[in-house]
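B., you asked whether I could sanity-check this one before it goes into the benchmark set. Here's the sequence:
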Amino acid sequence: MEQARTQIRLTGKQFFVLTGIAGAKAVVGLEDPFRGTLAEEMPAEVARIEQELEEAGYIRLVDGEPELVPQLLEYIEICSRALLTIHLAVDDKQRSRSSECFFYYSAGAVVKAELKYIDHMHMYELEEIGTPAEAWMKIMSSLNLQERPKRCPEQLKLPKGKLWQWLNGEQEASGAAQSLRKEGSSEQAVTRLAEAVKAPENYSAFTAYYRLQHDWRVEGIELLRGREANWVVRPDDRHDQIREASVMEIVRELGDVISRIK
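And here's what the prediction gave me:
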């Protein structure tokens, strides 16, 4: 791409209209921002957004029809036609900040769309970040993996969503611990997980979407980093399967997510 590393900021409505111009049926991470708009209001609303995009230099009218300018064309086409999309949400407890990004993959390049909340609006910051291999290294860097000693090899099990409730104070520690003990977890493993939940350093969700004609396969894992251990959380239909893991095992688990959906 000639415009590599250029960052483009779009509102949800602008992003939606641009992918529509590119002929996208659906884009992972982009919900319909016009939901609730009356049908009779839509033509005027779309025309208003197209005018914004033209004034910003992102589209031009050719014989009355909007076309994407070259600067934006490849970005939007990758987002619109991606077979593989990775969603990464990172909650950095140590630095009291969080981030949410979508990575749209083509064979030769990846576009990252970082979701931000600016001036009371959701904004997408689009940037081409290199080849799939380069993008994978940037995802690993965003996760900020840090080695922790692995002391409990056993797998723990909680009802789906209960770990998230526990982390956010919606589930009492005693109740979660009792659930783990009922599943046969050792006291050492329960104590170590409780320590990580009580003082988490980082919590991340990694989800991969693979397009199958008009639908997607979806696979994902979550990662919890405490002071004493790293934990991998693999959700299934009813439970969260939780186990300690080394950094190498976490990287392997992330790769397995991609393998399972293809």
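One thing to flag: The two ends are 27 Å apart (CA to CA). Otherwise nothing jumped out at me.
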